[in-house]
Amino acid sequence: MKRSGRTLRWALLLGLVLSVPACLAAAAGAGAAGAIAWTQRGASSTVAGSVGQVYERTQAVFAEMGITQTGQSSDSQGAERSLRGTRGELDVTVAIERETDSTSRVEVYARKSAVEWDRSFARDVLARIVSRR
Questions:
Q1: DSSP SS3 for 132
Q2: CA distances (Å), 27 to each of 23, 32, 107, in order?
Q3: Per-residue pLDDT of the chain (133 residues; tens, 9 = 90+)
Q4: Closest CA to 107 of 30, 53, 52
Q5: Which residues, in sequence order, are CB contacts of 119 under 8 Å at separation 6+?
């Protein structure tokens, strides 16, 4: 009887762990460099590298993915930069903000229309930025 009670408790615990929504797991790991979290309109992550380094990687990813650059901006003496582009029907925006000297906060959005976003494409762009060295 004791053994079956212990097994039942472990099964319940395992069930609870497996039922935790993926977004909570992503949010918990979002603080680690390279962990990608979903946002309401796209994806975000803390990325290893200065704002300038991440910006250069973003330009390379745009070229690699066939995203035509349409604009860029820089604020706060270079501590914040953004890059905008298009690919087909998508308007892609990458916002980069300094977190520390060696990390940057990156958010990617891929807009299809005024009210529709392609979060999967945004995540793909961000994953390529994160993995690029």
A1: coil
A2: 6, 10, 14
A3: 455 566 656 555 555 445 444 443 333 333 445 588 888 899 999 999 999 999 999 999 999 999 999 999 989 888 999 999 999 999 999 999 999 999 999 999 999 998 999 999 999 999 999 998 7
A4: 30
A5: 38, 39, 41, 42, 43, 110
